[in-house]
Amino acid sequence: MLIVGSGLTMADTVATLQRRGHRGPITALSRHGLLPQAHADVATDPIALPPTVLHALNSGNVRQLLRALRTLLPILPDWRSLVDALRPYSQAYWKTLSQDQRARFLRHLRSHWEAARHRLAPEVHASLLALQAEGRLRIRAGRILRAQRGPQAVDVLLRERGSGRVVAEQYYVLVRATGLDTDVERTSHPLLAQLRDSGLVSADPLGLGVRASAQCELLDRRGMPVRGLYGLGPLLRGQSWEMTAVPELRIAARQLADHLLRRQRSASSLPQAALRARVG
């Protein structure tokens, strides 16, 4: 079995297979071959970010932030506390980055950040490590070039990371476990494709969903807000980056609800104001 992706969706897939009694070998393939890290057995104490990191968060420069974090990590008892301390700042930091800096982050750091940020329960992580030690789970770094169903198996062409050699392999089952596809320009999702083709939404240039205003109102192909059409969640990663976990979703939903209530109150007060003006 080949699972495309090595993140949380892959971990869920492997856990499901184990519960159903699967005993065959499993290969998980992703661009960097990184397994999600585990949560600590005991929650770490929160930390306050030092001025060097806060300054780097306002720099709009990915390399400068990385340097500041590297100097701080050796003196921390647990790296998880640093990742968790960055979380409240991540959306604001993303908005300071230029398009080039965002592309640099996605190209070099995205996989490492997500492996550290979106962690596994300790027991699930231990189960995956045990499967690796037994040789039943193999995590590989590489990219699929082509996959097609053959007479008896799925024929796969892949290139392993760091190698120019193309390898032909066969698997009985191929599972896509890469999470939500946010590349709107190439999506096959019927609703998103229709909205895109009609011009009601426009794609984020880095493939991170759709463009939206600060109030989460989606932008059409001309860059104008589409009144009444809002978005929340992973499709707004191009605007906010961190928009997949419950804490960020909860805040965004509250802000959107407040915005809609203000708009409704403003709209309902207009007829009364116009009536008073006429009576006066």
What can you tell me about this protein's structure?
- This protein is globular.
- Helix 2 packs antiparallel against helix 3.
- The chain is an alpha/beta fold and 280 residues long.
- The strands form two sheets. Strands 5-4-3-2-1-6 form a six-stranded mixed β-sheet. A two-stranded antiparallel ribbon has the order 7-8.
- It folds into three domains: 2-38 and 119-176, FAD/NAD(P)-binding domain (3-Layer(bba) Sandwich); 51-117, no CATH class; 183-280, no CATH class.
- The chain is 43% helix and 16% strand.
Keywords:
280 residues; alpha/beta; FAD/NAD(P)-binding domain; 3 domains; six-stranded mixed beta sheet; two-stranded antiparallel ribbon; 11 helices; 43% helix; 16% strand
Task: Give the topology.
Layout: E1 2-4, H1 8-19, E2 26-30, H2 51-57, H3 62-72, H4 79-86, H5 90-96, H6 99-108, H7 110-117, H8 122-133, E3 137-149, E4 154-160, E5 166-171, E6 174-176, H9 190-197, E7 217-219, E8 225-230, H10 237-240, H11 246-279
Parallel strand pairs: 1-2, 1-6, 2-3
Antiparallel strand pairs: 3-4, 4-5, 7-8
Helix pairs in contact: 2-3
